[in-house]
Each structure stands twice: as structure tokens, then as C-alpha cells.
Amino acid sequence: MLSRREFALSATAALSLSGQTPKRPNILFATADDRSWNGAFRYRGANTLQIPAINRIEREGLAFERSFCAAPSCTASRSSILTGRQMWQTREGGVLWSTLSPDYPVFTHLLEDAGYFTGSTAKTWGPGTWEALGHKRPPAGREFNAKKITPPRSGLDPRDYAANFDDFLAARTDKEQPFFFWYGGTEPHRVYENGIGRRLGKDPANVDVPPFWPDTDVVRNDILDYCAEVEYFDAHLGRMIAAIERAGELENTLIVVTSDNGMPFPRGKVNLYDTGIHMPLSVRWGKNVSKPGRTVPEFVQHIDLAPTFLEAAGIAVPSSMTGKSWLPLLRGESDSSRDAAFAGVERHTVARPNNETYPTRCIRTKDFLYIRNFRPDRWPMGGEHISNLGNTNGDVDDSPTRNLILNERSKYGNAYELCFGKRRVDELYDLKNDPWQMRNVSTDLKYAPVKDELWKRLQGYLRETGDPRVDGKDPWQSYPYRGPRKS
Q1: Which residues pair with 471 in a beta bridge?
Q2: How far is residue 110's CA from residue 315's CA, in Å, rounded to a whole number?
Q3: Are 307 and 326 in contact (CB under 8 A)?
Q4: What is the reported pLDDT for 40?
Q5: Half-sphere exposure (CA, 13 Å, Cβ side) for 34?
């Protein structure tokens, strides 16, 4: 493993081109909290989601059609983003409310060691205790959280994200020093102000509800409230872009916008279906993007973010990182090897007796999603066990949609089974004929060759990347839960 000095020297060497040192890019990394890809639900009539900043980034840059997180759970996903490693490769970092092993270098520290001015606001890595295993500095640089705002409604973070970014820029005394800033908005994580979407003028009739939720006013309004939170995240992003533009640094700033995991609804967050792992990813980087406005079809994963940022900065990518830079895709190059994504979950909340996990892994290709549930005897969302949050089915965030399905189970039995019920050891979904992943065809003999091929490929990848689970080992159950508990 290279020392900090070796990394800094390798960065300098990498940046040398014909005796000249090109200006290293600034990086603005914006992560929403619990936002699924743009097709997680659909609209009729007027566009329900107003996100001009993200739309601008995609118009002047790129949108990735097939971007996937490593784990649909906050801490695990963010551990993978920082280390460039799959969830099962980050040890304690692979579970919620955990810690971060110093054995794996994080890209933010490598940027800082190579001369970047680094900082962040709000939620970056976490929730958890990053110092517990020996880290000596925050995972995302100096924290800028002093500026507060009176939010326009309840449920919003009181930190003024954009004003804190202004403070960050002001603290950079050397304006030639490249910066990295992590905007970690806490929206659209719950809670929401009930009915705010409708009060902001959004029409529930414009929402096409996914077929695994009841199509009711309760669910439609819940989706609209979620939309309002995404728009708030976008508004602060727009102010940050404007600040960079005023400073004359927009064209030399790599802007990457994504989320940590899927939306906080049943069958979304904590699940390996598309609503849980398929992520929005929008990128802008001035003239470094070929043919702006296009959509990239190749698969990319959150473990690719760390090596991408390092390569953009001219820093050697450590061998510990499993991901691969996608900068060639910005230049218009194709990559046929990017034909699949992998993800996994172990423990989100303490939703089962004795700290039990719900171990599951998946491979997602263009045409199929294959999920392997290693303990199908357990309840995927926790079942009737009283979780550390004091509720049943503790792996699903409290929400009107959740409560509707649970409280009216007799009326919405199919939705209950899809969102909360036990699952087969194998799940296989034909995405061409079943884009919402409603019908598990793993027992259909017609699909047997596909199932066998995908399980073989998934097994091979898990062994290649050192997943203890594929050999029947479970270190995750012994990892302490460092978060709050309700008595």
C-alpha cells in the first residue's frame, strides 16, 4: 500500500504532460439521501419533478442509464463509495450504524494528501462512528455546517447547504488549489411534511404508481411529498453551481450527482430490486465530455466513483479498490465489459432477533435481475419482531405507504407479500416483460438456463471479490450496532 507521500508524488508525476502541469479539476460531489433513479415512478401529464439544476447538468453533460449502488442501505453504500470496494469487502462498513476500517484507503483522504482542499456539508459517510477503528480525520474532509436556515417546511434539514459551500470556497485561501466538496443533502430521507407536494401545486393524478403499491390517494400524495424533497435538494445544488460559475471555475469542475440508495418506500430502500439499487447519475465536466446531452448505456457502479475521482485528479488508484474509472465513457468510448452490476445487503436496522442479518446478493444485467437470498427462512424486512426502532418490519422506514399496506393487509395482500413477505432462495426477473420485477420466474423451467448462468456468474464474482457469504461465513452478525435503540 502506498504511503501518503508516495501518493502525492504519483499524483504529481501523473499530471506532468510534456513538461507542463495541467490544472487539476475541482470536484463537486452531490449525493441525495434515499433517491431512486428517475424512472422509479412515472408521470402522466405535467412533469411532477422540477429539478432544473440536475436537468442542466445532464443537458450540458451526461446522464447514466444504468448506474447502481453497492448496497441499498446508507452506511454500507457510502462505505463502498469512499473505498471503491463492494459492501462485503468493507467489513464493519457494510452494515448500518457501524464504523469504517482504516485498512482501506478512502479517495477523499487521497485527494487531500495530493494537495486538494477538501470539505463537506451535512451527510457524507454514515450513520456511524468513523473513529472507532482508528481513523484520525473525517471521511470527507473539513465539515462546513455552521450556516443554518429556517426551512420552508417541516422535515427539511436546517443546515443551509449552499451557504456552507460558500463558506468552504471562502476558506480556500489559495484560489489555484483544486477543491473537492461533498454536498451530502439529507433529502429525500424521511420524514416529510404530510401533503406538502399537493400544497406546492403538484397533482396526484399525474403520478403513475408502481404496481407493487396500492394505487390510492395516500400513496400518490406520499410520492408527491417525496418529489418536493428531491426538488429542495436540487435547489441547493443550483445555488452551488451558480457560486462555481461566479468564481469562473465551472468548466474546470467535475460535477457528479447521485444518491446513496433507493427511495424510502416498501420494496425500495434495503431491497435489491431496481427501486432500491438503480441510481440516478448525472455528470458535467465542461469540454471533457464528448457529445453533451447524451445518455450512457453502459453499467456503472458506485464502487467506480473513487477510482474515477482519483483518475480525474491524476492520482494513482490503489490496488485495494475493486471499482474501475468510467472517465473513458465521458469521452465517448464504449466498454462492452460493463454489462452488469452487483450489489448486496446484510444488516440495516436491528430488525430480527439476536442481531440477525438478511443476507442477499444480486447481479443485474440489461435483461435480467437475479437475486440470491441466503436465508429465505428469515423475514426480509424483519417481520413481527420488535426492532431497535420499536416497531415491526423495522427495515422499512415509517411512512404513509408502509402503514397503509401493513394496516390494511387483508385488503392489499398482494402488496404485502411483495413488500414484506418471505422470499424464495432464488429470484429471477425478466426485465423486458416485467420491468417492475413483480413475477419471480426462478421456478419456470423455460428460464432455468438463464438462472443457472446468472447464479454461476454471481458466485464467481463473489469468490473473486472475497465475499465470506458465498462460503457460508457470516461475520456481519457479530458487528456491533452503534446506533440508537428504543427501549
Answers
A1: none
A2: 8
A3: no
A4: 82
A5: 22
Is residue 320 domain-shared with residue 373, that is, in the same domain? no
∠109-110-111 over CA atoms, to 5°?
A: 90
What pTM, to 2 d.p., does this model score? Answer: 0.95
What residue numbers bound the domain in which 125 lies? 4-336
- Same-domain pairing of 364 and 250: no
Task: Kindly list the distances between the CA atom of residue 241 and the CA atoms of 54, 114, 185, 432, in Å, as whole numbers in the listed order.
Answer: 10, 24, 15, 38
pLDDT tens-digit series, residues 13-46: 444 433 445 799 999 999 999 999 988 876 555 5
Q: Establish if 222 belongs to a structural domain.
A: yes
* pLDDT tier at 485, thresholds 50, 70, 90: confident
Asked if the model's pLDDT at residue 156 lies above 70, the reply is yes
Nearest Cα to Cα of residue 395 among 268, 487, 273, 298: 268
Q: Report if residue 55 sits inside a domain.
A: yes
The domain total for the chain is: 2
| Residue 157: all three cell numbers together | 434539514
The verdict on 356 and 259 lying in the same domain is no
φ, ψ of residue 256 in degrees (nearest 5): -125, 125
Do 171 and 307 belong to one domain? yes
Q: What is the pLDDT of residue 414?
A: 97
Calculate the CA dihedral of residues 420, 421, 427, 433 and round it to 10 degrees: -70
Q: What are 452's three cell numbers? A: 443457472
In a domain, 99, yes or no: yes
Q: What is the mean pLDDT of residues 42-51?
A: 70
How many alpha carbons lie under 13 Å from residue 142 in its C-beta half-sphere? 14
In this structure, the number of other CB atoms found within 10 A of the CB of residue 444 comes to: 13
163-166: Cβ within 8 A, 24+ apart: 164/121, 164/122, 165/121, 165/239, 165/240, 165/243, 166/243
Host H or E run for residue 6: helix 4-15
Q: Which residues contact 220 (CB under 8 A, 6 or more apart)?
A: 204, 205, 207, 209
* 368 bridge partner residues: 430
Task: Locate 180 and state its grid cell.
Answer: 473537492
pLDDT per residue over 260-292, tens digit each?
A: 999 999 999 999 999 999 999 999 999 999 999
Helix axes 217-246, 52-60, angle to 10 degrees: 60
